[in-house]
Amino acid sequence: MKREWWHSLTVYQIYTRSFCDSNGDGIGDFGGILQKLDYLQELGVGAIWLSPFNDSPNYDNGYDVSDYYKVMEEAGTMEELEELIAACEKREIVVMMDLVLNHSSHLHPWFLEARKDRNSKYHDFYIWKEGTKEQPPEGGGAFFGGSTWEWVPEVQEYYYHSFSVMQPDLNWKNPSLRKELYRMIQFWMDKGIRGFRLDAIDNIVKDGHGGNDTHSEQIHTYLMEMNQNTYGKSEQILTVGETGGATVEMAQQYSDPESQELSMIFQFELMGIDGIRSGNWDPKPYTLPQLKQLFEKWQTGLEEKGWNSLFWGNHDFPRVISRFGNDREPYREKSAKMLAVLLHGMKGTPYIYQGEEIGMTNVSGLRIDDYQDIESVNFAEDRKKKAGRKKKFVPILHGTAGTMRGRQCSGMRKNTPDLQREHRGWRKIRITRRSMWKTAEKNPDSLFYFYQKLIALRRKNDTLVYGDFRLIEEENPDIFAYERNLGEKKLIVLCNFRDTAAEMKARYDLTKGTVLIHNDTESLTKEVWKLQPYEAYMIELLQ
């Protein structure tokens, strides 16, 4: 496998609107990120991924772009963004941006012109079907609820939208549309952007029946074309495609260097193991062996061909500690360290969602009116209708609130984990653990420094980056254990997922090994490996 510069680095996702506010308006901005660059440099990340900052009416928190060449006023100015990029370059931190290429805002000038006149050149930038107001075209449901088709009386046609009615899908069949998108990507590369996260990129091909054809070979044709005309011209560009429906075989094709499409993808098979965000958001039970099998599937599947992205969550998912760990004291930080060891010990590029490195948990105690997210609001409304009566709906909402998207409960403002609660966009957010950001850097045993150590290990340990993955203790219901092997070198990762002690038979002579990182007092013996609650090891064996 050809070694790439981004194989050993760690990416830090910043949800710009909720990260850090520099001007006191309650909304995160470029100036806030600039203020925290020393913090991110100390953490050791090699890239920051900025969630959407293009001009937008923010019906979907920036994922509805109204101008691809402008930045949203709330985030700052183009000059401030350029200053941020330059400051990152000095610190050897790559700046990635979110690109929304499947759809635009309904307020984008292209769409405003498209809906006026069938003969406009922009009409074919979108997807239309004839019909009558009384009888829409057949089709499935949109991701955010309702039909995928919306009537426009001016042209007597329906337009297609995968997400909300305010996000009309772009027509990738149109070469003129693709050319405009490629020109835009080059614009941002010229600004110094060195990475792109391609939002919902596997939705760009439609099945002709009101749905997306996420398995179409045409997607790969478009990506190869985009690669050749934009980021593929430089070896210094990192790309990751959001492909929710990808199989291992598809991921191989997406991320195989010979395919010349993408560096890697985000796949969400792991994210669906407990049923959350899989259609109805109702949690379902799962076992640790099932979790192991999913990780093994993707680790071994992309071992020789392609590359994995490693993540426990992002703005679309609940906080990792609340979801897969234990967010109650005294186990919050310890279980967070265990989860960090498990993920960062695997093969692929790790992604950290802002606040993960200080152990932030899911928000609680909110009303649905406090959520500024289309999907969460629509979900709650649907549940309310199904519940029939409000008193029945309340426990349903409370039981599922922790599964709602994490966009609005993460960030820092004046060393606090959340933006000010009084602002219209972030009101009534419970400010928990105000001292997290302040104390993280003062305590040498903090989760922050634990992440720092893991990130540093990946930069210098080839076995950790390129070693083969082998699962051990497949059926153990408590301990997740695996090997990483590269030549004569071996790494062992041991993680106890329980709040009680767990044991497994010793497999190796640890007297010949070195503990690289550990979140408890050393307790392993020659015969039996006994792990305390949420205990985790990464051990290098000298053979």
Structure commentary:
The structure is a single chain. The protein has 543 residues and is of the alpha/beta class. It folds into 3 domains: 11-104 and 175-440, Glycosidases (TIM Barrel); 109-160, Alpha-Beta Complex (Oligo-1,6-glucosidase, domain 2); 467-541, Golgi alpha-mannosidase II (Immunoglobulin-like, Sandwich). The protein is 28% helix and 17% strand. Strands 11-10-9-5-2-1-13-12 form an 8-stranded parallel β-sheet. A 5-stranded antiparallel β-sheet has the order 14-15-16-20-18. A 3-stranded antiparallel β-sheet has the order 6-8-7, with no helix packed on it. Helix 11 packs parallel to helix 15 (447-460) and helix 12 (374-387) crosses helix 13. The two termini are 24 Å apart.
Please specify the SSE layout and strand pairing.
Layout: E1 11-14, H1 16-19, H2 30-35, H3 37-43, E2 47-50, E3 54-55, E4 67-71, H4 78-90, E5 94-100, H5 109-114, E6 128-130, E7 149-152, E8 157-160, H6 175-190, E9 195-199, H7 217-229, E10 238-242, H8 248-255, E11 264-266, H9 288-301, E12 309-310, H10 320-324, H11 332-344, E13 349-353, H12 374-387, H13 390-400, H14 436-440, H15 447-460, H16 462-466, E14 468-472, E15 479-486, E16 489-496, E17 502-505, E18 513-518, E19 528-531, E20 536-541
